[in-house]
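Need tokens for this chain, all 353 residues.
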Amino acid sequence: MKVFLTGGTGFIGQALVSRIRAHGWTLKVLVRDPRSQAAQWIARQGATLVQGDVTEPAGLAAALAGSDVVIHNAGVYELGADRATAARMMSVNVDGTENMMAAAHAAGVGKVVYVSTVWALGPSGRAPAPSIPKDERWSDEGPYLSAYHRSKAEAHRVAMRWRAKGLPIITAMPNGVMGANDHSSFGYFLRLTLMGQMAPMAWGGDSVYTFVDVKALAEGLCLAAEKASVGEDYLFCGPRHTVRDLFDLWGRKTGKRVPRWYLPRWFMRPQMALMEPLQRMAGLPAFMSRDAVDATRAHLEYTSAKAQRELGWTHPDIETMWEAIVRHERELMAGRQGFLKKLRHQPVVDLPQ
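Here are the structure tokens for all 353 residues:
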């Protein structure tokens, strides 16, 4: 099978490149800079680099020609984004999706796997109300909780408009993708925990999530590319847990301090407004942010029963998942010196298979 991938240099993309090559498929990857460390890593996996940008439509259709499947995974993710990053999220996530769908249509591609997110469906509920699991048919029309939430909801609508025009789209909606070298707030919190620097208090302990392991997600996307019928939607989620459950699990797995007290969101939000510029001054994303507080106003409890039933997809239990993530994160951090270097997300890591 000939696969064309966008977003191959990112957190999900690197795991996906590894799984696609493990399947023995021919792979082309769209990259902005073929000389970058991440692009060179992709080339070493046996993929062909195609220089381009999802925000620049010229040449995209020609690049896709001859592909059996296009996996559109490119996107910008950040909570606590400043104005410039929020604008880039709209450009890449929304306009980039429009450009890729138009290019796939022009190239006559037989199948497009669009990597969306559960945020496109919205919260499954609103904390502190009890959480009830939802499936692919759910839609929440409540207010957006972050610039990322808005951008992915709008991008999803773009993909659905192209599906209505006849483009053979399959949507994949992961929930909170976790793994070693994660660049989300929880990735930074895990590294702080491993360094013994996690604060004893947090917020949103009652929020319910079904985070997915990045390697399991990568295999799920491959299954969607190989087995799914066009026009179908699939959620890729892991076991149910609350934020409090997750931190308690980290405490057991690491032997390090984790939050014991959970402060009200209304109290934490103005504190994060003060923290955001300080993190940027240190060269970090604002992983402790008002967006991160607002995100915990949502439950994101979704079920992957459809993907398990129709694609044969499986996910590790929560203990096995986090044992592997903690072990690999420790290995990555051991090779770096200094607090900030240990804390930062790295551009490229080799994930164990």
